[in-house]
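User: quick one - fold this with adenosine-5-diphosphoribose bound?
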Amino acid sequence: MRSETDSRPLFRTRTQVGIVGAGPAGLMLGHLLHLRGIQSFIIEDRSEEHVIERVRAGVLEQSTVDLMHEVGLGDRLSRLGLRHEGIHVAFDGRRHRIPLAELTGGRAITIYGQNEVVKDLIGARVASGEPLLFEVEDVGVAELDSHLPKIRFRLKGGLHEVTCDFIAGCDGSHGICQPSIPASHVKIYEHVYPFAWLGILADAPPSSEELVYSLHERGFALFSMRSPRVTRLYLQCAPDENIEDWPDEAIWAELMTRLRTRDGWAPNEGPVTQKSITRMRSVVVEPMNYGRLFLAGDAAHIVPPTGAKGLNLAMADVWRMAQGLDAFYRSGSDQVLRDYSARGLRRTWRAQRFAGWMTSALHRGGNDDAFEHPRQLAELEYLVSSRAAMTSLAESYVGGPLD
Ligand code: APR
Ligand code: PHB
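Assistant: Sure. Structure tokens for the protein plus adenosine-5-diphosphoribose:
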């Protein structure tokens, strides 16, 4: 990284927790630590605009909403978030409502874009005056199994080294932290699904107050939203497709075909402001820590988006990590940190189970599809006609308390 003869200045900093990545996981961790009087240093390799603007998930579980309020960031969420007490599942031309709140003792989901969460968290970080550096380059982590692990990076040509008590790897699915763990200390479980999601944002008022998950003979489609003026829509496509091959008219035609129901309901159309294709996979990294490096969020696990769990799992991770670090600094005990991975993996596999089930129930074209499709329809018929089956979906969808 740096040779003996290198004459560039080296800036050295000391912190308690070095955080790599300023997505929702890294930023929420920094905020939780700040509230507990623990110092942190956050670095991010993209620009602030990019981190705020990129379009990501939008469904907050009840526990994520509660956490935002607990940490003093509930104001904009209360004003702009859309609380949904139910979702619809559509197949065979009909929509069926699943009353989430009624089935779970009042728990619900809230539609609030991940970028809004990130905006709130960056605002809190800036107000705290603690370090948050964007557009850093050549990030590396070292001495992970020592008591003083290091983060090194370049910023505007200068070399920096941050000596930490702990490093939090919150750098997402393409980060450097997880690959820095020696291969002999980690097991990676991966499943690649044979399809992708094409997603659009459209300036069109949502035509349904609640989400619609649809299985059509041409494949999955999802109706969602971001605000009373913006609709978010997805359709299943092949994993190797290019967004350039999908003109807006073709996307709308396919969405209308897959979403329109016999009662005449369909999404409203409007100008498309963003579109992209995302491949679908599941990943679980076990364990979620190595030495003094702790992974959180997409750096530790990826879930297919069908269950809307990615952002919520990230929040649960950093809540647990902050508890462990708090216990360490208060009492010197690392017991909570030692349980961090096992507790996180239990929640992660629960989310993989649910997201995998939702995905297989609603997408076409897996193995043996001629048999699978009628089986899927039977599954969905059962789901919408059994209170027990709906309760099972509702419990997982709204999510359990942080643990
Ligand atoms: N150095 C610094 N930052 C990095 C590096 C690196 N080498 N590599 C990646 N990053 C940054 C990314 O630019 C990104 O801003 O780490 C951040 C990771 O953020 P996310 O990808 O948003 O992941 P996470 O915070 O775990 O959020 C959970 O839930 O809805 C899902 O996938 C969705 O992003 C969402 C996730
Ligand atoms: C979204 O609004 O982006 C969204 C909603 C539900 C999902 C996934 C994504 O399952």
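One thing worth noting: The longest strand covers residues 187-203.
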